[in-house]
Amino acid sequence: MIRKIDLNLEYEIFVKWWDEWKFPPIPKALLPKTGYVAETEGKPLCATWLYLTNSPIASMAWFISDKQVRDEVRTEALGRLVKGVELKAKAFGCSRMIINIQHSSMASRLKTALGYKRGDPYLQQLEKVIA
Hints:
Order of helices and strands: EHEEEHEH
CATH class: Alpha Beta
Helix content: 25-40%
CATH architecture: 3-Layer(aba) Sandwich
Low-confidence stretches: none
CATH topology: Aminopeptidase
Number of domains: 1
Distance between the termini: 37 Å
CATH superfamily: Gcn5-related N-acetyltransferase (GNAT)
Number of strands: 5
Strand content: 15-25%
């Protein structure tokens, strides 16, 4: 099942997962209300956040999963999660999805199993705190 994340109740779960993967936790204030989690039998397995724009482009970011779950279970849950979030984005009127991904194995799964392709190879993602 894919469901919306309640950050007020679940944020600490994701902080634990980020810590387990040795990834700095994303501050709660930077996560949109359009976060989704894939779960099986009520157990959260992986999550991502859907960023919407004022155009038909959406972006999924900050993928995270429970490191204690077997790889093949995480892989299946990731596929369900991505497909489910794509449907959510379509419901918001989006027709294009951009995914920023760090791990080459996960990028490979997205390309081979879910039809994604590499975007512009000359682009780099840059970030700056402006507050």
